[in-house]
Model the fold of this input.
Amino acid sequence: MEVEESILTKLINSVLNHLLGYPPDYHLIPDQVVMTAFIVLLAAIFLPLLRRRFRIRRPSYLQQILEITVEYLERLIDDYIGEEGRRYLPLVGTFGFFILVASIIGYVPGFSSATANYNTTLALALISFFAYNYAGLKKHGFFRYIRSIGGQPLWLLPLRFPTEILSHLARILSLSVRLFGNIYGDHIVYLVFFSFLPLVLPIPFMGLSFFVAIIQAYVFVVLSIIYLAGALSPEE
Done:
C-alpha cells in the first residue's frame, strides 16, 4: 500500500499535461516536489504575518511555544558546540520546522507528506552533510580538517582515512533512511486503519503520529548539531 498523491499534485499535473500535450496520467512533477514547494510557500506567506502579531507584553500561547522551542535549540547548540554555534540556529531550526510540518501535513485529507518520500529525506541528509563539512573546512582549513578526519598518529592516516570517509558517508544513509522509514511506515499504518474505520479509530493514531513527527524532527536536529560540533571541534 503506497501513500497517495496529494490533490494539489494531481491538479497541477493535470493542468500541465493538458497545456503541454502529455497523457492525462503522466506524472510531470513528483508529489514530494509539489508538497515541498507548498510548505515553502506557506512559510513565506504566513510566517511574516505571524511575526507581526508577536508582542513583548502578553504574548500568545503560540508565541510562547515558539520562544521556548528557540531557547531549547540554543541550549542544545551551546551544550554541543558553544556560543559560536548559534550562527547555525537558522539551519537546524529550518530542519526541525520543515520536517515537522512536512510530516504532519500528510494527515490532512487531500495532502501527502514530503518526508514519506526517500528523495526528500535524502536531500535533507545531503544538506546536513555538506553543511557540517563546509563549516569544518571554513574554520580549520582544508589540510587541518582532512588531517583531523584521519586522526592521530599521522602514520595511521592512510589506514584510518578511508574508514572515516565511509563513516561520514554512512551518516547520509543513517539520516535519510531513519527519517523516511519512520514517517512512511507511520503513514502506511494510519492509512490501513483509516480504511477500516475512517471516523473513529484514526483519531488516536493521529496523536501518536504527531508524536512520531516531533521525535523524528528532534532526532534529525540533534544529529545535525552533533555532526556540526564534531566538524567545528575535531580535536575533541
About this structure: The radius of gyration is 21 Å. The chain has one domain: 35-232.
